[in-house]
Every structure is written in C-alpha cells, then in structure tokens.
Amino acid sequence: MKSSRGLCRVLACLVSGFIFFHGAFAASGPATFATTLSNGLKVVMREDTRAPVAAQMVWYRVGSMDEVDGFSGVAHLLEHMMFKGTPKVGAGEFSRRVAAVGGRDNAFTNSDYTAYFQQVPKERLGEVMALEADRMRHLSVAPEEFAQEIKVVMEERRLRTEDNPQALLFEQTHAVAFQTHPYRRPVIGWMNDLENMTAADARAWHRAWYAPNNATLVVCGDVDHEAVFRLARRHYGKLKARKLPVTKPQREPAQKGIRRLVVKGAAELPFLLMAWKVPGVERMDGPIAPFALEMLLAILDGHEGARLSRRLVRDRQLANSVGASYDALNRGPALFYLYGNPVPGQTPEALETALLAEIDDIAQNGVSAEELARGKAQLLASEIYKLDSVFGQAMEIGRMSVLGFDDRDIAAYVARLETVTAEDIQTAAQTLFGEDGLTVGVLQPTPVK
Amino acid sequence: MLSKKLRFFFLCGVFALAAAVRAEVVIEHWQTPTGAKVYFVQSAALPILDVELDFAAGAIFDPPQKAGLAATVGALLEMGAGGMTETEISDRLADAGAYLASGAEDDLARVSLRTLAAPDKREAAIGVLEAVLREPHFAVEVFERERARSIAAIRDALTRPAPVAQRAFRAALYPGHPYGNAATPESLAAIQPSDLRDFWRAHYFAANANISIVGDLQRPAAEALAERLAAALPRAASLPVLPAQPERASAGTKTRLPHPSSTQAHIYLGLPAIARDDPDFFPLLVGNYILGGGGFVSRLMKEVREKRGYAYSVYSYFSPMKQSGPFTIGLQTRREQANEALAVTRQVLEGFLADGPTAAELAAAKDYLAGSFPLNLDSNRKILAQIANIGFYDLPLDYLAQYPSRIRAVTLPEICAAFARHVRMGELVEVIVGAED
Q1: Residue B295 sits in the same domain as residue B195
Q2: Which residues does chain B have within 8 Å of residue A49's beta carbon, measured at their own beta carbons?
Q3: Which of A81, A181, A273, B157 is the most buried (most CB within 10 A)?
Q4: Domain of B398, in residue numbers
C-alpha cells in the first residue's frame, strides 16, 4: 500500500522478502558502513562499484500511521509539497536541478515511512545532498502551490482508488480489519479529508516530523564511504535535532470473530480478499512464527508451480488468478492475505472454501521437504539477484532502518529464515489462521452502466 | 555484521573484480552457424547469468481474425516442453533459483532466463530453457485453459476506463493494421490448436532470433551456450513478412466513449509516428523530453499538473517500432473538467510545434539525457535490455558509446523539422473515455 508522488512504478516490485544473501558468495559481498551524526541522523553507506552512479535516499520514520482522524493523507500530501520549494529553491526547481546533473528523483509514502531519492552520476552526489538537506528543514508550503497540489492528489486518489474496485476493496478491508489501529486509514487519505486539508496542516506535519533524528540517509553506489560520511556531515550536520511528537500505541484489540464485507464496483469478475491478523517480526531472535509465515508464503505462492496456482488455477480451474501476500516487517500489526478471482461460473464462496482447504491441508499434512528446500533455494538466489540493483539495495537498507532494525539485521533475517523447519510451517498453519482473526472482503461486480 | 578483518578481506575482492569490469560496456557480437545473431557482455562482478532470446514473432504477425495468437504462443512456450509438464518446468527452475519468462509484444516475442552463474545451477536452468526452445508441447488442454483465462481477464479489464481507452486509441491509430488489432474474446476463440504450432514453426527459428547474454561467463562458454540454444530451435523457415505499412491518417478521428462508473476521463492524443530506424530518432527523443517526456520538468507536466492541478499523470512519448510506432499523449482528469484539460494539452502541443523549444530547454534536456546515461547501464538487467534492443532493431554496435554525443549533437532546427515531419495537429487522433456529455 504505497502512494507515490508520481509515476514511480519501480516501487511496485518492493514486496516481501527483505533479506540478505549469505553462504559461499558472502565472502565477496558488498561492504556496508554505518554512522550516526551528532544530530541523530543515521547514515548507512553501501559501496557498489559496478557502475559510476550513486543513489541517495532519505527515509523518515513517519507515515500515514502517524496521522490522526480528520488529517488522513497529510503525510503523502506533504511528500508532494516537498517538491514545491524552499526559500532557497523555487517551486519545481528541485527536480529541475536534479535533472540538470543527469539525475532522476522521486519519493513515496506508505503507512510506516516516507522516503525521497535521487539516482545520479556519482560525482554529483554532493549537489543532491545539499538539496535534500535544505528541504529537510526549510520548506515553504506556499498556499498557491498547495491549492494546485491538493487537486493533483485528489486526481491521484481517483486514478488509484476511486476508479479501481479492487483497490477500493483493499481500502475497505483494512478499515474493517482494523478498528483502533491507524492502519485502518488509507495512505492516500479519505477524499473528504483531502477536501478539507490546508497548507497549515502540511506545514505543521513537516515541522513536527522532518528532523535529522527521525531520518536515515542511505547512499549506495560507487563512492568511498569516508567521502560519503564527510559529505553527510557537511550537508546534514548543521541541522538541529528536534523533539519528536509522542504517539500513542493504539494497539488493536483482539478480534473476536470473523468479519465480512462487500464492496460493489464496476467489474466482470468478483474478487475475494481474505486477511488474517498474524504476528510480524519484532526481533530477529524473537518467535519463529513470522519467519515460518514467510516460508509458508513461498510454498503457497513462491513460483508458478507453487500450491495455490498449481491446484486452483491449473488443476481445478476454479480461479482465474490467485495469490498470497505477507510482509513480516512493519511498524504496526501484520496481515497475511489470500486473494483471487473465481473463474466465470464460480463464486467467491467456492474460492474461499478452496483457499481455506489449502491452509487446512498444510495444518493436517504439513509440507514436503522438497517444497521447503525449493523455497529456500529461491530465497538464497534472490539474495544474490538483488545485488544487481543499486537502488534496490538502498531501498532495503533504508526500509530496515526506519522500521527500527539495522543493516546487520538483514543478514540475521535470512539466517533465521534458513532455520525454519517443516514443523514450524505446519504449526503456523494450525495456529495462526483461525476464523476469529479473519476479515473477508468480496468485490461484487456491477455493470458499468 | 562481519568482523573487521573479514570485511577488509572482501573489500579487496570487490575492488579487484571491479577494476576488471569497470570499463565501458563492451559488446561482443557474432552469429551462430544456424544464423542467430548473438550479443554478449561479460560481467564477472556478480555470479549471475542473464540470457534473452528475441524473435520477430510479435503481434505484428497476428492474422487479422486471430489477434492474440502471437501472445498465446509466447505465453505457452514455458507451459509444458520437452516431456516436462508446466509444473515440472516451474519446479525445476525454482529448485535452481532461476526465473524463466516468455511472452510477446507488438514486434517481438521474448524468452528470458535469469540464473545463478555457478555451473551446476546454470546447467539445470539452461536445460529447461533448451527444452522450451526445442519442443514446446502446446497441449490442447493447457491452451484452452489459458484462453479461457485470457478471455475472462479481457472482459474484466474492459469494465475499467483505462484499458477501454488504450484499446480504442490503438484501434483509431491503426485501422486495418495489427498494431491496432488487440485480442478480443472472439479473436481468441478463432484460434485453433494447430495455429499455435504453425506460428511457432514459422517464427521461432535461429535466423529469426537474437540471443543476448550478460553475466559471469567467459567468451568460449558464451559461444557454446548460444550455439546450443540456437541448435535447439526448429529448422529454418523463410523470414516472416511484415504487413503493409500503417496508413498515414489524413484527418484525425475523434472518439468519445461513455463510462458512467468512472470519476475520471481518460484522454489520449496521438498518431502513428516513427519506425525504430528513422533518422529523426534523436531529435524526437530530445524534443519529446521537453514536451512531455521529462518527468516533472516537461511542459505538459508544468501546464497541466503543476499550474492547474488537472491531472496526477500527464506525459508524451514516441514508441519507435518495426513499423511506424505511435506518438502518444495521455492524461486522466476529473470528468467534469475533461474539456478544459484537453484544451490546455492541445495548446501546449500546438505551441511546441509552432515555436519549438527554447535554447535553455534544449540545454537542460541534453544535460539530463546525456548526463543520466550511466543510469541506463548500472545493472546487468539494464545492460541486457540495451543489447537486446540493439540486436533486435539492428542498431550499430557502438550505439551505447555514441549515445551521449548523439544527444549532444541535436539542434533546435532539427527538433522543429523532425516534429514537423512526424506530428501534425490536423492528423491527431483523439480518444476520450468517461467524459461528461
């Protein structure tokens, strides 16, 4: 559930599986260096010398989960306003300057964090650091710029959510699954909150949350880490730490029974979304359950021949499409999703029964050693493939940091996944998929009219 | 994290390797004895191997009444081959940690493999790829299942404004040409199981293929790999014949389709513009960056989004293809203001065509397009995409090396002349889905 300033499709590929390779190849793996400036800014640097480029990302530990009722969408709106000028850099000038040095820039917001990035030829890193440091502290939020940008965000909401029935179903399902936790609100904000948002709201958000002690700077690329640390101190070091707002935990009370909802929307095929409240990772040496869920995910939906697709799409031809999703690393509570379209002539109820039967099969009969080994083989390979992307490495490091982990936890996470046994997965299937923690949403097709 | 000593140890390793691979991207090129063209970039920095085969086997070769045939053949290649079921294929790949993908676009069909470069892993993965190239099953029951899924997905997509608008736009741009002929439930129903194998034999042979290889492999091993894959392909047929060139529309058509459920209107403007071998490629690329290609700094973005808040996304681009590929402007806006947003968009284009870019805009465009070039080559995946493009469209081997200077050489008069040749207001096709009446 991300919402981004613009056209940033690259982020769609950011799914679960934030992990670090190990094994034989680790002995020549990339080097990661970390430091913290005196103002509290964390700096993490990954040297990757394959190409003369560098990626800078600044991650703020603030997202839509930090908003309060009536102000939904302000975290994302502020992300847009970050491109609308500071006293030194005029509106729209930020992106022009990045482009002038041969760079690309964008930003994205989700429930847990907000992040900004530039990809540049390596010798231009200092220039984009100066720009990013400037807007960390000094942001104009001019009323005339705000007046246009809030309209852009409403168009974004229409495009992504209002006219996309499956997205509406996801939004509504979150609102039903969570009653007290702020994950119940959409990242992009309710339309009515957007209609009533003011420039002052955006300015207050920036003042409250945008501080070096609430951020991580990540650089990945062909730059020496000492040089990066020097640049970081020069550009960000003078910004003063601020006292951050205190937020309440707003912990979601235990759900006591299945919840169901229906969303009607223009579609031909119904869509079924099942979401269970499950544990996430709080510590890398904590309970095994979330790690078992990650491996369960791989066994259900890790490749085309995995259980869900093979059985429900190919063999039984009950689903036109089917999938599973789980992210173990979040600031708030985790959900495990199963979803899909029934084929024409089949019902969401039949698909729900079939999906439940897949979980039940694993609860009863466990998973094979072959399946588990396959899941781990894919995991280890993906640890190497991810090193092919400079930007992808920066993404992983930054996300871990704002979630409260550090870059060493990336390796610890994978090491822990490697210890998951078939019994762990069976236990997870037996104990974590009860109907009392389940929310079921159905998109009911209506004619386009 | 690892101990300091250990880390020092592998730092040395990385730097030593890096020194070996840091120079410019060196493309090696040869042909297999069976006539497949090979493009190879050795990159030892990561233990990864990427292989891609591109065939002139895209939707441009679809028979008029059977749109979707090329895409179906491309998708079915990996769904059962060489005695392996589709599940056995995907399980074997997963066991090796490899990924195989196949499918077709407008001009080409692509089969690509990413695998670990270690000999045992890569051998398992390449074995599957070889089987997929040699002996795809095209099993009737798999075909019928996939066809039913495609038909259901098309019907579902056509309840949403964006796919409706995109189809209507292509159909209006290319009447009677395969570029405008999207698969429909009817055209998919017309495909016979025997059509799949016939299409495959007619298109998936070595002389009709480009093989691109990037990764941790020595040249002799790359040669052996290319030869092995090419040898797996069916016996040579005659090169497929392209359809007649798309007609140049003499007057722009305007299509308005209702979509009562949609809160936004989806607007497309454009016309058939250039083939990939057109000498105007660089002037149009640079000019379009200024008009609507340059992300947040283009004229369209500034006038439609930044100044007026009409749209989240507004852009223009050229899609150079084998034959005259489209020039497209697209945006989505609240349905009540569709006419105003359309008027501003047309004004921006008209102003650009009349006066061309300013010198400052041209300089900024060159700074970005030439300066950002290293970002197009900063991963094996991107290098693979570049050399596959060079191979398929017969671009010169020094294309990448020349790219920044070709950008830098573009002049204002060249941009104006190129746009005058390819984009005329009177010929613009306009499609709007979901606007108010």
Answers
A1: no
A2: 14-15, 18, 22
A3: A81
A4: 254-433
Contact in structure between B265 and B434 (CB atoms under 8 Å): yes
Q: What percent of chain A has pLDDT over 90?
A: 92
In a domain, B20, yes or no: no
Position B241 in a domain: no
**Looking at the domain assignment, is residue B181 inside a domain?**
yes
Cα radius of gyration rounded to whole Å, chain A: 22
DSSP A104-158: EEEEEEESS-EEEEEEEEGGGHHHHHHHHHHHHH-----HHHHHHHHHHHHHHHI
> Which pTM was predicted?
0.93
In a domain, B245, yes or no: no
The CA distance from A415 to A432, in Å, is 23
Identify the closest residue of chain A to B370 by CA–CA distance: A102
Q: Give the strand order in the sheet containing B264-274.
A: B254-257, B429-433, B264-274, B325-334, B314-318
Looking at this predicted complex, what is its ipTM? 0.92
Please, which contacts does A88-93 make with residues 24 or more away whose CB atoms are closer than 8 Å? A88/A134, A88/A138, A89/A131, A89/A134, A89/A135, A91/A140, A91/A142, A91/A145, A91/B306, A92/B296, A92/B297, A92/B302, A92/B306
Task: Compare CB distances from A28 to B14, B296, B378 and report the shortest one's residue.
Answer: B14
pLDDT in tens, A283-314: 999 999 999 999 999 999 999 999 999 999 99
A369 touches chain B (CB under 8 A): no
Q: What are phi and psi of B303, to 5 degrees?
A: -80, -40
Write out the two tokens for B109: 């069909």
Report the C-alpha gap between A133 and A173 in whole angstroms.
38
| CATH code at position A298 | 3.30.830.10
Sign, CA dihedral A38-A42-A46-A52, equals negative
Domain count, chain A: 2
